Amino acid sequence: MEKILIVEDDIAFGTMIQTWLRKKGFEVEKATSVKVAIQVCEEAERGFDLVLSDLRLPDHDGIFLLQWMRKHGVQVPFIVMTSYAEIQNVVLAMKSGATDYVAKPFHPEILLDKIKEAIKTPKKQDSNATSADSQRSTDTNSTPTDAAPGKQAGNQASSANGDVPKYLEGESEASRKLYSFVSLVAPTPMSVLILGASGTGKEYVARRIHELSTRANKPFFALDCGAIPKEVAASEFFGHVKGSFTGADQDKKGAFEIANGGTLFLDEMGNLNYEVQVQLLRALQERKIRPVGSNKEIDIDIRLVCATNENLAQRVAEGNFREDLYHRINEFTIYMPELKDRGADLFLFADLFIKHANKELNRNVEGLDGKAKERIAAYNWPGNLRELNNVMKRATLLATERYIGVTELEQSMAHIQPQAPTALHDEETELQRIEAALKAAGGNKSKAAQLLAVDRKTLYNKMKKYGI
Ligand SMILES: Nc1ncnc2c1ncn2[C@@H]1O[C@H](COP(=O)(O)OP(=O)(O)OP(=O)(O)O)[C@@H](O)[C@H]1O
Fold first, then answer.
1. Is ligand 1 within 6 A of the CB of residue 26?
2. Which residue has its alpha carbon closest to ligand 1 atom 23?
3. How far apart are CA 19 and CA 42, in angstroms?
4. What are the φ and ψ backbone dihedral angles of 140, each rounded to 5 degrees?
5. Residue 146 Cα to ligand 1 middle (Å)
6. Residue-wise pLDDT tens digits, 30-47
């Protein structure tokens, strides 16, 4: 009897397919998260003949599972299930070696046809496995550069933490909205302006746009414009030839040339002075650059992604930023949500950062205890992901027990002004946070209340208020 593994976090839906497939003569097991699916695969005595997986799962996406399987030599057919709204992700899944996909809602007979077809043509998976390897850059382990001026990112993924992903996208409404815009604009040639407060993760988003674009196999180059002195700006952008100015003792390629064919990410864009803005605009309009001291022009073809935490529109209004350049770099705007608006993602990120810190500091901390969760939920994280990461790292180092308590958390937050607990912030965020916590807790209200750092009664009252 052929054996199928269903990976689906919607328990009712998963059970419905399981029952139906059993009636059709398959042996069927279920998992509700990537973590559980990996465990089931590792423990299964005879393995599976096919995996049917949702794309959006509570801990990782289905592509992560697919890549894990291929990496561990599990070459069985893999069918992804997705909603029409997320159909763009199917391209990514297929590139990563998925056998086929079904868009929800689907007719069970269609699914059955796809399963039969996939099981009887195993050859296809071998070639896809290779494709999964070559496409690993699309997984969430991909590493953005530290955007120090002129640091080049290769196109390969890297996971410094074994199976712990380096990056997370989050499950909150704000995160879903963010990444739906990312997937929408990525395959187009449009220039993108990413706006958001410091530490919200703008560089990771820039990197994802590149990875999901048709330029994914070409270079991605990040340049921190905020760190470039005015005198060397032209050379950083366009390069120079040896002897063109004091200190130019060899030829140097500029950011445009390094990123040629791929994506140029200009971070802290709002800091560029007027003169550099003019040079940049000319390069973008003419699609040519001339290195400092050279009389040769070089054709360039780059996708531009810019980021800033300044109010650029206001700078334009004040006459400090050229309007024509603003329109050129801003064909599509992405607004980064602040951490306080990402609902229960706060706990997912905290957990991830603790895992990274464990690895880096050789510790074995399991997470935050209830009171510590309460404390992080009551704080509004003006420094966003960067601040959370720093606090979690310090707290992991200071922890003396299996769980980080409020004492070491407070010590790690010593630089932070105490705040009155705001419990769940404003109404919209509150609703999102409740929904996300319920999802993360698999519908278990006690667990969700714990995640939200409120008591069960408060959670029930809030659920009633919002009609959940
Ligand atoms: N998606 C993510 N998953 C996990 N960690 C993240 C993610 N995005 C960002 N981080 C963490 O937050 C830190 C800050 O991210 P990043 O530098 O991209 O922010 P930024 O918005 O560009 O900030 P700034 O405006 O100050 O340059 C990163 O070093 C990383 O540790």
1. no
2. 199
3. 24
4. -75, 5
5. 9
6. 999 999 999 999 888 788
Residues 6+ apart with CB under 8 A from 140: 60, 61, 64, 165, 166, 167, 168, 169
Atom of ligand 1 nearest to the CA of 203: 18
**Per-residue pLDDT tens over the stretch 152-192:** 333 223 343 457 888 999 888 899 899 989 988 899 889 99
Q: Is residue 119 a contact partner of residue 77, using CB atoms and an 8 Å limit? A: yes
**Does residue 202 line the site of ligand 1, with CB under 6 A?**
yes
**Considering the entire predicted model, what is its pTM?**
0.61
Locus of tokens 């979690």? 392
Interacting residues of 281 by C-beta distance below 8 A, sequence separation 6+: 322, 324, 325, 328
Q: Tokens representing 22? A: 């059993």
Beta bridge partners of 266: 223, 306
Of all atoms in ligand 1, which is nearest to the CA of residue 389?
Answer: 31
Length of the chain: 468
Q: How far is CA 381 from CA 90, 336, 390, 437, in A?
A: 34, 14, 11, 18
DSSP string over 394-413: HHHHH--SSEE-HHHHHHHT
Q: Which domains does the chain have, with CATH numbers?
A: 3-138 (3.40.50.2300), 151-335 (3.40.50.300), 340-468 (1.10.8.60)
